[in-house]
Each structure stands twice: as structure tokens, then as C-alpha cells.
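Record pair follows.
FIRST:
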Amino acid sequence: MIEYKSYDYTRTIPVDDYILRYRDERRFMAYCRECRRYGNCWSCPPFNDSEDYLSGFRNLLIVCTRITPVVLDAVEAGQELMHRERSRLDKRLLALEEEYNGRAFYAGSCILCPWEECTRRSGKACRYPLRIRRSLEACGFDLGRTTSELFGIEMKWSENRNLPEYLLLVSGFLYDWETPIW
């Protein structure tokens, strides 16, 4: 088992402000179109209801999870760490949806089944329609700018098959009234 530390930072921002300041749908959809998951994974674009998906809520709780591995060798270790943390975060976000009647955004693409086995590729419905969620980046948001401006944390990337000093996962939760307890 890979040793690591993780910490969740949170910030709440009005949805309209977040859309205005951090959404660049044209730019980020261009990045998405270059990815092999585009159109082949139910949590990835294209979507025909992005505006409706983001509407109807006042606030967005953003969760920035910083994962610091003890050892910085293979990139595969980073993928394992991120998957482990994603599982924890996704469960917590689904619990928030139920408790606060909101909408969760997972950190990154779907991890419910291998993307190569996603039923979207064959035109079938998702196997996990009650558990799948989109990510903020799949809706056109700039997460690098989000983490640097709202949390003071710059995104880092792997180099030469070595992990960066830390990894970041960015999740979100849309809600209306009572602020969720993270």
C-alpha cells in the first residue's frame, strides 16, 4: 500500500460568480475533444444540457483535495492514490446530495467501470445511472485557475514518470440553502 497524506480544502462561491469567473466552455471543450473519452464515457462531453445542469442552484461548494505521496516514484502510484481518494470523495458527495438536495461534481472522469467498457461507446444506457456524475472540467470550468485563485494552490504535473510533489482533485457540490457540512 502506498503511503500518503490527504487534506480537503473547501470554499463556497455563488454559482453565478463561479460561472462568470471560471467557466471557459469553448476552451475546455476543445481540450475534451482531444481526449479518447470524449463521446465514449457517460461522465464526459458532449452534453446537450450543460446550461440546465448548472442552473437551479445558488451556491457551489468546491472541494480541493491535496494528496501528498510519501514516495514520488511511478505515475501508476499516483493513479492508485487518486482512485482511492476519488472513491472516498464520491461517496461523501453522494451523501451530501441526499442530505442537502443538491448536485455533485466528481473530480475527473468516471471510475465506476473501465472507460473501455463504458456502455456509451455502444449506444447503451449507463450501468450506474444513479451514481454517475460529471466533473467541473467536463462542464467547461478552469480548475487550474480555480485552485490557484480560490485556494492558493498551483496544479502540478508528473514528469519523467515521477509524481509531482502533490496531486490535486477538485470536486464540487451545488446547493441552495443550508451550507453543507463537509
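SECOND:
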Amino acid sequence: MGLLTPVAVRIGSVSWMPKLLPQIVFVDKLVQGGTGGRLTILDVAGLPNLMLTVTGRKSGLPRSNPLLCVPYADDSFLVAGSYFGGPKEPLWVKNVEANPDVTVRFKGATSQRRARLLEGDERAAAWQAMLAVWPNFALYEQRTDRRIKVFRLDPR
């Protein structure tokens, strides 16, 4: 957690944030591109994050998305398809489900990972770990009728 984390949590709780997500992602990709992936918007906020690259399920092209993440057991990461609690699932979720072999860039280091959708008790434990890092996940869950999918990204 950084000095700006409470500000980020406050901003992340605003109900109209899903409408700004495309602009936020665009700016974050510019920042990451300009710094070789060494700096992200979430870094400034003191939050763990990664760049997830997955093969598009229809196009077959690589698609990259900056995501808040939670470093987890056994050199894994947790990510959630929350979309700030918006009604629609993020596109990257369907791509990961279709092609679970992904590339992750975390703190400038790139690794190959296998994504696995978590269910039941395993999801519940992971969700608690995610709430400890980003309490707004609870708010996002309340905002939407869909079940927010949680993925564990394990080394291949």
C-alpha cells in the first residue's frame, strides 16, 4: 500500500467509473509503453498490477489488458473480471476462458502462465485475499447481478 492507495480506493468506488475504463486503460498503456512496463497508473496508487496478454478467441491476435492483481501462493497471481462492478463481463475474461495460456508482465518481468477459473472454497479464499488488497471488490460484487469471475494465474 502506498500513500495514494486510499485516494485510489475512493476513486475506484465511484459508480460511473466503468464508463471511464477505456480511457484509463488507454492512458495506462501509454505510461507502460513509455516506461517499458516499469511504471503503471496502479503503481502510482501503490497497488499491485500486471499486464495480461491473452490470445483473442475470435481474432487469434494478442490482446493486452492492465489489471489489478494480488500476488498469491506458489508464485501465482489472482485477477478478477470485475469491470468496476459494471453489468458486462470484461472481454479479456472470455478470451482467457477460450485460451488459458497467457503472458504476464509484472514489475517489468514477463512470464508464461496458465489461467484457471476458481470455484467454491478455493474462490472464497482467493476472494478474501483480493478484498484485503482492494476492498472495492465487495462494492463491485454488490453493483452487479453477475458473479465476478476470479482467475489464478500459475507459472507454466
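COMMENT: Helices lie at 5-12, 17-34, 41-44, 91-98, 120-133, 136-143.
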